[in-house]
Amino acid sequence: MISIIILSLVGLFSMIIGLFKPNIRIVIATVVIGILTAAALFTLGWNADLAYFNDMAYFDNFAIAMSVVLCTLTAMIIAVSGYHFADVKNYKTEHIALFVFSLIGMVTMVCFDHLSMLFVGIEIMSIPVYILAGSNRKSISSNESSVKYFLMGAFASGLLLMGITLIYGETSAFHVDSIQEYIANSASAKTSPLLAIGILLVLAGLLFKVSAVPFHFWTPDVYEGAPTLVTTFMGTAVKIAGLAAFYRLFYNCFLDVDFVWLQVLAAIIVLTISVGSISAVFQTNIKRLLAYSSISHAGFMLISILVASDWAGSTIVFYGVAYALASFVCFSVVMGVEYASGSVNIEVFNGLSKKNPLLALAMTVGTLSLAGIPLTAGFFAKFYILSSCMDGGYPWVALVAIVNAIIGIYYYFKVIIAMYFKETLQPFEVEASIGFKAILITCIALIFILGILPDSVYSLF
Amino acid sequence: MHALLLLFLPALFAIVSLLMGKSAKIIALLGSLVQLLFSIFVVFNLTSSSEPLIFKTDWIPSLGISFYLEMDKLSLLLILLTNILVPLIILSSFSNRPYSDNAPFYGLVLFMQSALVGVFGAADCFLFYIFWEAALIPVYFIAAIWGGEDKVKVTFKFFIYTIFGSLFMLLGIIYIYLQTPYPHSFSWDVLSTLDLSNSGEFLIFGSFLLAFAIKMPIFPLHTWQPDTYTTAPTPATMLLSGIMLKMGIFGIFRWIIPIFPISFLNLSNLLVIISVIGIIYASIIAIQQKDFKRLIAFSSIAHVGLIAAGLFTGNVEGLQGAIIQMFNHGINVVGMFFILEIIAQRTGTRQIENLGGIVHTAPKLAVSFVIIMLGNVALPLTNGFAGEFLLLMSLYKYNMWIGAVAGLTIILGAVYSLRMYKNIMLGESNQTTSNFKDLTLSEMLVVVPICFIILALGVYPNLILQFTSTYSADLAGLLANKSLSISNILK
After folding, report:
1. Looking at this predicted complex, what is its ipTM?
2. Is A27 left (phi over 0), alpha (psi -120 to 50) or beta?
3. What mean pLDDT is reported for chain A?
4. Which of B302, B299, B321, B301 has its CA nearest to residue B310?
5. What residues contact residue A30 under an 8 Å CB cut-off, 6+ apart?
6. What SS3 class is residue B366?
7. Alpha carbon B36 to chain centroid distance?
8. Which of chain B's residues have a Cβ under 8 Å away from the Cβ of A417?
9. Cβ of B8 under 8 Å from any chain A Cβ?
C-alpha cells in the first residue's frame, strides 16, 4: 500500500521536476532509488496476506513477488536509459514518469482481487506505453507502432470489459472470490452461455496483452517501431505483468468451469509456441526476432496456467524472472549496438565479440538462457514448465514445446554466430558506460545463479 | 571426495589457464597431467578395494535432484581414457599456430574435460543431462572458432543435430522421473528398479536411444559426422572422436540397459542389423575417399558400428568387447588424427593422391603411423585385436550370418587403411613431400605414449578385461534374466 503511494509520488516528482530542466542523471538516480525503496517495502507484507480498498487489492505472496520483480525490472530499464536519452531533446523526465505510471498499473494488475481493479490496472499500464511507443515523434515507424498498439489495445480492452460485464451478468459479482464461490456452488453457472462467452471474451482480451496467437499480429511491428528502450519495457515487464494477471484470474476464478476454456487455451498455446518460433527463424531484424521469440515464450508461460498445478504460481514467477532477465540483457545490448551503428539488423552484430567482448558475452548468456541451455536460468524455467506439463497430462503439448525449443536454439544461435564467428562489416565502436556494464554483469551473474540454484527463487512460496 | 576432485580439477585449471594469458598452454598441460596422475592413483585404489567412488549431496531438494556421483569401474575406465587423451590433445596443439597461444582454447578444452568426467561419473539422471549438454558447448566453440572451410555452417549442423537428440532425451528423463514413487527422484538406483512395462517404455527408450545414437553416431544418424570431423580443427576432432562419441556408448551401458532392459532386448535384433549395415556402408564409402581426414571419419563410423553391434547383442562377449574397444578406439583414432594432422600441416594438403614417399625422409613418422594404423585394422598384437575379436565372436554367437557379414569389416578396414598408408607414405616422393621433416620432440611426446599403449594392450589386453569383467558379467546376467522372464511369460 505504502509502496504504491511511493511509486505515485516518484512518478509525479519526475513529471513535475521536468519544469526546472534538471540534470537527467540525477532524476534517473532518484527515480531508481525511489522504485527500489518501494520494492523493498513490498517485501514487508510477505506472508501477511494483506487486503486493501475493501478487498479490491490483495497482496498474497504471489502478488508481492511479482511486484518486486516488476519494480526491479522497471528500475533496471530506467537505469539503462542513457542510450535512449542521448537521442531525445525534450521531455526527458516525462518519459521516466510514464514508465513509473505504467509500473503502478502493473502492480495493480498483479494484486487485483476485483475485476474493476484488473481493468483499471490494465489501462493504467497500457496508456503510458501507447504514448511511449510513439515517443520518437519524427520516426514514422514509431508513430505507426503507437497507433497500431493503441487501436489494438483499445479493442482488446473493449473485449475484456464486455467479458467482465457478461460475467457480472451471470454471477452478479466483481470480486474474484465471490465469482469463484458462485461458480462452485451454482449448478446453472456451469451450463450458462452468458458466463462461457464472458470467460472467452476475457480470455481474448488478456491473450492480446500477452501477445498470444492469434492476437499477436501487432507485436512484431510495435516492437520494431517503438524506441528500443520502450521495446525492452514491453517485451519484459508488460508481458510478465499480463501473464501474472492472467494466472491470477483464471487460476483463482475459473478452474471450476475449465471445460469452457481449457481446450481453447491448449490450442492457443500450441499455436503460440509454434508460430512464434517458426516466424522468428526468418527474421533478419533483431528486434523482430526478439518479438517473435517473446511470443513463443508467452506460449511457454501459458502452459503453467493450462496445467494449473499447485505450484503454477512459483513456475510463473520463476519463468517470468528468467525470461525477463534474459530479454532485458538482450534488448539492452541491442540498444547499445543500435546507438552505435544506427541499425538493428543481425549483420551489425557481426564481429561484436572483438569490438566489445562484454556486450557480446552478455548477449550470448542472454540468448543461451532464452534458448534454455543448461546452467542458465532459462533451462530450469523450461524444465519446470515441461515437467509440470508431462505431470499434468499434456505430453503432446510438451512434445510441441520441445520441438520449438530446438527451433529456438536455431535462431538464437544465429545471433551468437554473428557475434563470434563472422567478420565485421561496418566499422563502428560500441561504447558502454560503467553503470551499464555493472548492470549487465549483475544480470549475467543472476542468470547463472538461478541456473545453478533455482531453489533460491522457486521454493520461496 | 576423490570423485569430486576428479570432476572439478580440470575446471579449476581451466579458470587458472584462462587468467594466465600467454602461458596458458603450460598451465593447461600441467593441469591435465596432474589430473592424469590423480586418476591413475584412483584407478589403482579401486582395483584393490572394488568399492565405487561415491559423492552424494542434495542439489535441488524441491525436485529431488541430488549432486550424486558414483564412479564404478566402467566410469573410471572412461575417465582414465579422457584423462590420458586430454594431455595428449593439449600437447599436440602446441605447434599449431592458430590456437597454440590462445588461452580460451585451452580453457575450453579443460572445461570440456570436466564435463566429460561428469557425464561418465554422474549417477543422477538430471546431473547426467546437465553434463551431457555442458560437454557440447566447449567443443562447439572450439570447432566454430578455429575450424576450416565452412566451419560455421558445419558446426552449427552438428550442434542442432545433437541438441535435437538430447532435448527428446530430456522429455524422456522427465517422464521416467514422474514414474518414480513420490517424492520423485532422478537417481540411478531408483530409476533402475522402475517397472515401466505398462507405460510407454518403448517410446522413452527411443528418446534415450535417439540421443545416444546421434552422438555415437550410428547409421543412419551419422550424417553430421564426416563434415564435422573434416572441418573441425584437429584437437576438436580428437575430442569428438576420441572421447565424445564414447558418451553415447556409455549412455547405453549406464542408462538404457539397466532402465529399459525389456525394450533393449525386444529391439536388439533390429539394432544389430542396422549397426552391421552401418559398418559395411561406412567402410565402402571410406574406401572411396580422397581426403584422408574424411576417410578416417568414415572408418570411425565403421568401428563404432561394430562396437554398437556387439553391444546390442547383449551377451557377455559383446559387452566386454564393447568396453575394451571403446578404450582402444579412443587411443587409436586420436593417434591417427594426430599423424594425419602433422602430414596435413607440413604438406598443406589432405588429398591422398598429392602425397607419397614420405617414408624416405621421415622414418620415425612412418613407424609410428604403421603401429597406429595396424591398431586401427586390429592386427593381432595391437590393442584393436582383442576387442574386435570379442565383438565379432559375440555377433557370431548371436547369428552366424550377421557375424559373417560383420567380419567383412576386417577386410574392408585393411583395404582402406593399407591403401591410404601406401599412397601417403610409400612410393616416389614428389614436390610436396620431398622436404618432409620427421617428428619433432614435442610430437614424439604425443606419439610414443599412444604407440606404447597400442602395443601394451595388444600384448596384454587382460589389463582392461580383468578390470571390467565383473561389470560386464553382471550386466549380461541382468539381460539374460530379463529375457528368460519374457520367454516364461510368453509360454
Report:
1. 0.87
2. alpha
3. 89
4. B321
5. A10, A13, A14
6. helix
7. 17
8. 144, 152, 156
9. no
- Which amino acid, A217? F
Q: A240 in helix, strand or coil? A: helix
Query: DSSP label at B52?
Result: P
A109–chain B Cβ distance below 8 A for any pair: no
The DSSP string of A35-51 is HHHHHHHHGGGTTT-EE
Residues in chain A: 461
Mapped onto helix, strand or coil, the DSSP state of residue B489 is helix
Characterize B99-114 residue by residue with b for buried, 16 or more Cβ atoms within 10 angstroms of its Cβ, and e for exposed: beebbbbbbbbbbbbb
Does residue A302 contact residue A272 with C-beta atoms inside 8 Å? yes
Which cell is B135 given? 560437454
Beta-bridge mates of residue A112: A57
> How many degrees, rounded to 5, is the angle at CA A460 between CA A454 and CA B4?
35
Residue A430 phi/psi, 5-degree rounding, is -105, 120
Task: Enumerate the residues of chain A whose CB falls inside 8 A of the CB of residue B170.
Answer: 383, 386, 402
State the best of B58, B152, B166 to mutate against chain A, taking most chain A CBs within 10 Å: B152
Which of the pair, B21 or A73, is modelled with greater confidence?
A: A73
- Cell representation of residue A120: 483499471
Express each pLDDT in A10-21 by its tens digit: 999 998 988 888
Q: Which of B140, B129, B133, B114 is nearest to B14 (CA)?
A: B114
pLDDT tens digits, residue range A327-373?
Answer: 999 999 999 888 888 888 888 888 888 888 899 999 999 999 999 88
Closest partner CB to A391 (pick from B141, B171, B178): B178
Q: How many domains does chain A have?
A: 1
pLDDT per residue as tens digits for the range B206-240: 899 999 999 888 888 888 888 888 888 888 899 99
- Measured from the Cβ of residue B437, the count of other Cβ atoms closer than 10 Å reads 11
Residue A428 exposed, middle or buried by CB count within 10 Å (0-12, 13-18, 19+): middle
Cell of B122: 554422474
Question: Band of the pLDDT at B198, cuts 50, 70, 90?
Answer: low
Cell numbers describing residue B412: 574392408
**Dist CA B184 CA B66 (whole Å):** 11
Spatial contact of A75 and A435, defined as CB atoms under 8 Å apart: no
Q: Averaged over A163-190, what is the pLDDT?
A: 88
Query: What pLDDT score does A461 carry?
Result: 67
| Dihedral angle computed from the Cα positions of residues B36, B41, B43 and B44, in that order, rounded to the nearest 10 degrees | 140
- pLDDT tens digits for A363-375? 999 999 999 888 8
How many alpha carbons lie under 13 Å from residue A317 in its C-beta half-sphere?
A: 22
d(CA A201, CA A203): 5
- Domain of A444, in residue numbers: 2-458
Phi and psi torsions of B399, nearest 5°: -160, 125
Cis peptide before B217 (omega within 30 of 0): yes
Confidence of residue A146 (pLDDT cuts 50, 70, 90): very high
- Chain position carrying cell 516492437: A223
Q: Which residue spans within B25-163 are E strands per DSSP?
A: 53-60, 65-71
Tell me, yes or no, if B67 comes closer than 8 A to chain A by beta carbon: no
Instruction: Please tell me the distance from the alpha carbon of residue B221 to that of residue A7, in angstroms, as a whole number.
Output: 58
Helices B24-49 and B73-92: crossing angle in degrees, nearest 10, is 160
Asked whether residue B286 carries a pLDDT value surpassing 80, the answer given is: yes
pTM of the model: 0.90
At how many degrees (to 10) do helices B125-146 and A395-421 cross? 30
Nearest to A66 by CA among A213, A212, A240, A221: A240
pLDDT above 90 for B466: no
Q: Which residues on B lie below 8 Å from A421 (Cβ)?
A: 144-145, 151-152
Is A458 within 8 Å of B178 when comparing Cβ atoms? Answer: no
